[in-house]
Inverse folding.
């Protein structure tokens, strides 16, 4: 296990590891103990009671956080004709078709999110080995394979994030920056956890929301009491 620095150890002393905090209290603590000099990202982590080996228990999707993440994402759109013009008008950073596919295939990756129209997916599919491992492959489930390119671009720019459970049933997602007010972080967290609860697979049995923690990039995790969201 990686050894944590002195600042992290000092921060850890302020967190009661045996306790589940109310969301606002947890966020205040995360902001207080964030050890870095830069504006750290605040991340929420959830442990879900799902069997990820089963196809009917996958949890994946996207949600627009009301206050964004504090980071403006660069959006690349694979589209042509009128759809390319729509994407440009909506504020996409890069728009193109075959030429842009070739540029990415040669290793250019100066973007954060990829959107593609369905008619471009035949070509975009060739980029699977490049985009897939980085979590950048467009997918209908997250609204990034669509003819509504303007809407897709606007949502990403407004603070849309994607979430996906890993093999162990964990989800990690940013909910803002340490510089955000506690109220804004709490609202982002509430929208995210509400979305995850609604995404519960019908086949999942037993307790679904097992654990939730909030942390900053360099700070310790603070366990959150989730009963007000789950009713448990």
């Amino acid at each position: 296990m990686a050894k944590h620095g002195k600042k992290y150890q000092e921060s850890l002393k302020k967190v009661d590891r045996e306790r589940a905090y109310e969301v606002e209290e947890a966020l205040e603590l995360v902001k207080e103990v964030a050890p870095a000099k830069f504006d750290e990202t605040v991340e929420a982590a959830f442990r879900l009671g799902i069997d990820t080996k089963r196809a009917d228990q996958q949890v994946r999707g996207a949600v627009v956080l009301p206050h964004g993440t504090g980071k403006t994402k660069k959006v690349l759109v694979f589209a042509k004709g009128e759809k390319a013009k729509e994407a440009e008008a909506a504020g996409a950073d890069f728009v193109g078709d075959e030429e842009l596919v070739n540029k990415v295939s040669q290793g250019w990756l100066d973007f954060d999110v990829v959107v593609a129209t369905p008619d471009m997916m035949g070509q975009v599919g060739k980029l699977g080995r490049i985009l897939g491992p980085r979590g950048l492959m467009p997918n209908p489930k997250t609204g990034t394979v669509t003819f509504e390119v303007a809407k897709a671009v606007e949502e990403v720019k407004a603070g849309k994030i994607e979430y996906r459970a890993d093999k162990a049933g964990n989800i990690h997602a940013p909910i803002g920056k340490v510089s955000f007010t506690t109220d804004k972080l709490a609202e982002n967290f509430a929208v995210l956890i509400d979305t995850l609860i609604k995404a519960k697979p019908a086949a999942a049995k037993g307790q679904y929301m097992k654990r939730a923690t909030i942390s900053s990039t360099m700070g310790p995790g603070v366990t959150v009491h989730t009963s007000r969201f789950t009713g448990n």
Observations:
- The mean pLDDT is 90.
- The longest helix spans residues 182-198.
